[in-house]
Write a structure and sequence with these properties.
alpha/beta; Rossmann fold; 3-stranded mixed sheet; globular
Length: about 200
């Protein structure tokens, strides 16, 4: 059985854990370095990216994630998780914030690209290799650039941003600007789990 960890320091990790269990996957909350034992894959959930990043560093989970990815472990970041995976992050309003990230993926993201909490929305997104899925954008980032081995595999058109990236892949890493757990978009989880099997 595939064993998937969900970083459980802040944010909506419970929804991911529940959905993984419905898919008959062994799912465990990851709160410390010891929780990485035997993991095949990891999800960094949505939430408050600065808070999750701070708690990662306090608990040493940041270094454990980098080592996990470098050893071939598959990682999916959703919303805040995508911000934390990115090598370049700016905020839509204030620009460069100097925010901590894991600097693992060759992508540039803009935080709060579509507006604040009240501007949240659900939309259909066509993801390469997955198909069309319904997903939630909640204070979501936009993927504005990908380079080297990173590739944008989904786009969204929005009045606040025009056409921007909604998902990207690079080797064993998958970055989603949206929340698939809220709309129970099983297809994207199956794609993620297939990455583990490959």
């Amino acid at each position: 059985m595939v064993k998937v960890g969900v970083v459980a320091l802040q944010g909506d990790f419970l929804e991911h854990l529940q959905l993984l269990k419905e898919l008959r996957v062994e799912a465990i909350p990851v709160k410390s370095i010891k929780d990485f034992n035997g993991l095949d894959a990891l999800i960094i959930p949505g939430g408050e990216s600065t808070t999750i990043g701070f708690l990662m560093r306090v608990k040493g989970v940041d270094k454990a994630i980098v080592e996990f990815v470098e050893s071939g472990g598959v990682v999916m970041g959703t919303c805040a998780g995508t911000i934390l995976l990115a090598k370049s992050v700016k905020d839509r309003v204030v620009g460069d914030t100097g925010q901590f990230t894991l600097k693992l993926m060759d992508i540039a993201v803009v935080r709060n690209a579509f507006g604040r909490q009240r501007d949240s929305f659900i939309a259909k997104v066509m993801v390469e290799g997955v198909g069309e899925i319904d997903v939630a954008f909640i204070r979501a980032p936009a993927i504005v650039e990908a380079w080297n081995d990173a590739k944008i595999i989904a786009y969204i058109e929005h009045p606040a941003t025009n056409r921007v990236g909604a998902a990207a892949i690079e080797k064993n890493m998958l970055a989603l600007a949206f929340h698939p757990e809220i709309t129970k978009s099983i297809a994207i989880y199956n794609y993620f789990l297939d990455m583990v099997k490959r």
